Amino acid sequence: MDQVMYMPANKKKVLCISASNTYRRGEASTSTMVCRLIERIIAEKTDEVEVDIVQLMKMKIKFCLLCGDCFDEGKCPFDSDFNHIFEKTREADALFLVVPCYTPIPAKLAAVFEKFDEHLYANMLKIPQYRSPFYDKAAAVIGHGGMTESKESLGYYHDRLITPVAKTLISFGFNVVGYNEEYPMGAPFGLKDDTCIQPSEESIFPEILHDWNMIEKRITPLVEKVLKELKI
């Protein structure tokens, strides 16, 4: 008798957004590689979750015009890439947002947040008792940068990068999953030591060599907490 492979019905959907701007790095960008790492960690723990990865570096996000047409149309009439992200986020059962520290928040992510906010605000103005489609949806934030890890640098990433991102998600209705008592809004990581920064022959920017075992150990508890929120 042929064996029948069991395929879980109605898989949970997890969306992982890489907020990196480093277009030339592509799949090798740290944020994207963290998304791939999250995908692998989840796959090793369960076959009941489908992970989708969106890279903002590949999206041509346009700035919000505050026109209000997103209420009438149910989407931005000027920005198909934003509509793709919004729909993916609405369909997902949980969200991971991996954010590098630039100024500190990457420009495309700020533009996406502004459009999320205006879309929800327009609906709140027009629809009595409107509830965000992201209400109580689990979300987790991972923030990182190019400083050597220390109490000060990790605290900087948590307070200046992760916290404003997490609070913005909360304002949209998300249930932000905390990391621990020291970093309640999300998981930060940096570089293991100074040897992780090496000159590059191809770019003005240096090569960053991450300790991926360290990063996996750091983010796995957060991934497990999100899976727990999904009842997995």
User: What is the CATH C-level name?
Assistant: Alpha Beta
Under CATH, the topology can be stated as Rossmann fold
- How many distinct beta strands? 8
Give the percentage of residues in beta strands.
15-25%
Q: Radius of gyration over alpha carbons?
A: 18 Å
The CATH architecture would be: 3-Layer(aba) Sandwich
Number of domains: 1
List low-pLDDT spans. Answer: none
Question: Which structural class is indicated by helix and strand composition?
Answer: alpha/beta
Question: How would you spell out the order of helices and strands?
Answer: EHEHHEHEHEEEEH
* Count of helix runs: 6
Describe the structure in brief.
The chain is of the alpha/beta class and 232 residues long. It has six helices and eight strands. The chain has one domain: Rossmann fold, CATH 3.40.50.360.
Which helices and strands, and how do they pair?
Layout: E1 12-18, H1 30-45, E2 49-55, H2 69-73, H3 80-91, E3 94-100, H4 107-126, E4 138-148, H5 151-171, E5 175-176, E6 187-191, E7 197-198, E8 207-208, H6 212-229
Parallel strand pairs: 1-2, 1-3, 3-4, 4-5, 4-6
Antiparallel strand pairs: 7-8
Helix pairs in contact: 1-6
Question: What labels describe this entry?
Answer:
232 residues; alpha/beta; Rossmann fold; 6-stranded parallel sheet; two-stranded antiparallel sheet; 6 helices; 8 strands
What does this structure look like?
The protein is an alpha/beta fold and 232 residues long. The chain has one domain (12-229): Flavodoxin domain (Rossmann fold, 3-Layer(aba) Sandwich). 40% of the residues lie in helices and 19% in strands. It has 6 helices and 8 strands; from the N terminus they run βαβααβαβαββββα. The chain has helices spanning 30-45, 69-73, 80-91, 107-126, 151-171, 212-229; strands at residues 12-18, 49-55, 94-100, 138-148, 175-176, 187-191, 197-198, 207-208. Strands 1, 2, 3, 4, 5 and 6 form a 6-stranded parallel sheet that branches. The longest helix has 21 residues, at 151-171. It is globular and about 55 Å long. The relative contact order is 0.15. The model has no long low-confidence stretch (mean pLDDT 91).
